[in-house]
Structure formats: C-alpha cells, structure tokens
C-alpha cells in the first residue's frame, strides 16, 4: 500500500481506555495499580502525620504509614490493540474534589473493597452510581481478614445485580488483570452489547 497504513497496521493501533481505581482509605488501590503496571507507577504518597490523625481513620489498617494525596497512575496492555491507563483515586474525604477531574473521560471504574471496613466502600459505589459510570466491585482478600461469600458482600453493599462483584488479591498481577478485564467488558457491554466479549 503506497498511501496511509494497511488494514493490518490500522487493526494494531491500540485503543487507550481510562479506568479509575477507587475505594476507601487503606483498601489497596496503590498496591493494585503497582501490581499490574508495565511502567513504573506514578505515586503521590505522603507520610501520615499527627495533623491528619483526626481525619484519617486507620482502624483495621493500623500498620499503614502513607496515604495517596493526588493519584496513582499506571498502564497495562491487555492486548496489542488494547491499553488501559489506570488512575487510582485518593481515599480520604478531604481529597474527593479530585475525583471529578479524574473521572472525566473514564470508561469505567473498579471499586476496591475491604470486608473489614466495608462501609468505606459505600461512598465510592454511590459516586459511580449517581454519575452512571460503569463499575465493578473487587473485594481485596487481605490475609487474616474474614472471608465472606460474594452474595453476602453484594447484599451488604446493596449492589444492583448487574454490577460485577469478584474476589481478588491486589498484590497478584493475574488476579488484578481479571478484575480489569471484567470492568472493561462490563463497561463496553453497557455502551454496546455487541462488544460484550471485546477483550477476550
């Protein structure tokens, strides 16, 4: 072909999709982004201080010493023609003004949940429901935390049956990839049911 690119070359031009990773304080968002990112993740973590103690509830995550103050950023190529840009949101209420900026142009979101602090997930679930942004809930299975069946967690979060919910390990690359594939498929199916299996 003399002018332009061949059909094969055009097919290989990657589609870039933006995915948010949200959830409560200390739920594992930074860990999740770092587990799958093929580039060195951008992190905006700062040490927890005495000044922030009245605002940062560390109950259940007492060992946590840092917090995200802007965002985490990473990238993963799911296929040669599909790249995800991951934006991890800060978990504390005082940084929520950033969520609207980060949400612009996003295809969907992952709400990461911790069964030890499940109520911390309500705000993120409500945020995406109100804005009609497709999302998947991923329960991060922390060591030592009590395990609950998926239907029990769904009922506790009062999730619509159409919202995917799965268990994951935010430290494990393959586990996180499964979560990301699920949210992409869910979001694309919302846009066009014909794309339900676009990532397989």
Spell the H/E element sequence.
HEHEEEEHEHEHEH
Radius of gyration: 18 Å
Q: Give the strand line-up of the largest sheet.
A: 4-5-1-6-7-8
Low-pLDDT windows of residues: 48-56
The amount of beta strand, in percent, is 15-25%
Oligomeric grouping of the chains: single chain
End-to-end separation in angstroms reads 30 Å
- Tally of helical runs: 6
What is the total tally of β strands?
A: 8
Structural class: alpha/beta
Shape designation: globular
Q: What is the typical, i.e. mean, pLDDT? A: 82
Main sheet: strands, sense, barrel: 6 strands, mixed
- Fraction of helical residues: 25-40%
Summarize the structure.
The chain has 200 residues and is an alpha/beta fold. The chain has helices spanning 7-12, 29-36, 97-103, 122-130, 150-157, 173-191, and strands at residues 15-23, 45-47, 66-68, 72-79, 82-88, 108-113, 135-140, 165-168.
Describe this structure in words.
The protein is α/β, with parallel strands linked by helices and 200 residues long. The chain contains six helices and eight strands. The chain has helices spanning 7-12, 29-36, 97-103, 122-130, 150-157, 173-191, and strands spanning 15-23, 45-47, 66-68, 72-79, 82-88, 108-113, 135-140, 165-168. The strands form two sheets. It has a six-stranded mixed β-sheet, with helices on both faces. It is globular, with a radius of gyration of 18 Å. The protein starts with 6 loop residues before the first helix and ends in a 9-residue tail after the last helix.
